[in-house]
UniProtKB/TrEMBL annotation:
Domain of life: Bacteria
Organism listed in the record: Streptomyces tateyamensis
Protein name: Short-chain dehydrogenase
Family annotation (SUPFAM superfamilies): NAD(P)-binding Rossmann-fold domains
Coiled-coil residue spans: none
Family of the protein in this entry: Belongs to the short-chain dehydrogenases/reductases (SDR) family.
An example molecular function term from Gene Ontology annotations: oxidoreductase activity
Record's keyword terms, sorted: Oxidoreductase
Length: 251
């Protein structure tokens, strides 16, 4: 069923050229929004959407791209801070440079994009920011110290930003995906000795028996971004197949 609940709204999705961001850009567009994508290489976009090149590590390129998107769309109502990178290992495994890199993209990148988008969002009657966080923010996952810390910061920022901007009519929420079947996971599986066996093991570790799909995360983002969620701000919506909330007995 097609809905048009986002008709007339203007949305910017970071990391929108791949995975969760691409599925989100597609869904927001299907539901009536005018959508622009900010990414390192939006030229590879397979959708007929506006693409803007920026590196979240570079404040000038982010400001330029957000302004160009805002001008091209004629405003901004929805910002989806989705782009992010991963890192494996314990606190002993990553040098300082890697910590700076992941925080630069996952945390400061979100701050830079939000800063650039706020002047546009303040002019919207339905302003919403949705951040792509992760169950890693709260779940205590092994071998993910750096990534978890960066997503913990995204969760805290979601709450702080929601408080700071609620009186301006800007809602801020996040989604906490579990393990999502995107090119990101594809790259991890490809690096395994036996990708098919690794995929089967990954599926078996999910309470639902399968990975989360990118469109399922996109649906949660689209809901939080929509006027239907007008009284929802400062929340984290899990889209994780039950990973964080369920206490299942080992089978
Ligand atoms: P993906 O690798 O398929 O897509 C990420 C996109 O972000 C890419 O298009 C990439 O070019 C862009 N990007 C990366 N660094 C950038 C930078 N410096 N500037 C601009 N764009 C940049 O990954 P995905 O799985 O779709 O992940 C999207 C988000 O979802 C990330 O924030 C990730 O942490 C989060 N997440 C993913 C999973 C998962 O299992 N896939 C689970 C939880 C959370």
């Amino acid at each position: 069923m097609t809905t048009t609940d986002l008709d007339g709204l203007k949305a910017l999705v970071t990391g929108g050229a791949s995975g969760i961001g691409l599925a989100t850009a597609q869904l927001l567009s299907d539901r009536g929004a005018d959508v622009a994508v900010l990414d390192l290489d939006p030229g590879k976009l397979s959708l007929p959407l506006l693409g803007f090149t920026a590196d979240l590590r570079d404040d000038v390129s982010v400001r330029d791209a957000v302004a160009a998107a805002g001008e091209a769309l004629g405003g901004l109502d929805i910002l989806v801070n989705n782009a992010g990178i991963g890192a494996a290992g314990t606190v002993e495994d990553n040098p300082d440079e890697q910590w700076h890199l992941v925080f630069d993209v996952n945390v400061l990148g979100l701050v830079r994009t939000t800063r650039a988008a706020l002047p546009y969002l303040r002019r919207s009657a339905h302003a919403a920011i949705v951040n792509t966080c992760s169950i890693a923010a709260t779940a205590g996952l092994p071998q993910r110290a750096l990534y978890s810390a960066s997503k913990g910061a995204v969760l805290s920022l979601t709450l702080a930003m929601a408080a700071d901007h609620v009186r301006e009519g800007i809602r801020v929420n996040c989604v906490n995906p579990g393990t999502v079947d995107t090119p990101w996971i594809g790259r991890l599986l490809d690096a395994a000795d036996d990708p098919a066996a690794e995929r089967a093991a990954l599926n078996a570790r999910q309470p639902t028996g399968r990975l989360v799909s990118a469109p399922e995360v996109a649906a949660a983002i689209a809901y939080l971004a929509s006027p239907a969620a007008g009284s929802t701000t400062g929340t984290a919506l899990a889209v994780d197949g039950g990973m964080a909330g369920l206490r299942l007995r080992p089978v």
